[in-house]
Amino acid sequence: MGRVINPDSTGKQRNQLMRTSAELLRRLSQQTTVDDDTKNMAALLVYCLREIDAGIDQSALAWEKRDYWVKAEELRQRWYWAGDMADQLQGLVLGGHWENLPPMMLKLLPRFADVKITKLTRKESLWEGCYTRLMEEKPQDN
How would DSSP label each residue in 1-60? Predict the structure, then answer.
């Protein structure tokens, strides 16, 4: 019996999410005002960063099952920023602190520097409704 290869591995998903995030950052940097598109793209970026963070834990657990503890810890250390940035960006979006979006993007840009974008391939339909969905997650104050 041959090896079982998962075509949708967490590494492949992470690469796709990194590409989507890099394109979102490019598009956000071209925005001059905060409109619905800006809000939806920022919300999708939160979701992408969350998924990247979740995928890191999956990959690390797979390494730990094989007793590669050091490799698993190195992976977590290299990608710790994804969860932190997702939380910070989510707070920015939920709080409506749009004036803090450019500094947040400046913090994110170096993380995506190695993703080369020659053509924008993600369609606008990808982020439509993301802002509303993220706002629905917001805990209600009683």
Answer: ------TT-HHHHHHHHHHHHHHHHHHHHT--S--HHHHHHHHHHHHHHHHHHHHHHHHH
Question: Tens digits of per-residue pLDDT, 1-48?
Answer: 555 555 677 888 999 999 999 999 999 999 999 999 999 999 999 999
Structure tokens at 110: 């170096």
Phi, psi of 73, rounded to the nearest 5 degrees: -70, -40
The 3-class SS string of 54-76 reads HHHHHHHHHHHHCCCHHHHHHHH
Burial class (CB in 10 A: 0-12, 13-18, 19+), 85: buried
What's the pTM value of the predicted model, to 2 decimals? 0.87
Q: How many CA atoms lie within 13 A of 8 on its CB side?
A: 0
Alpha-carbon dihedral 86, 136, 12, 70, rounded to 10 degrees: 40
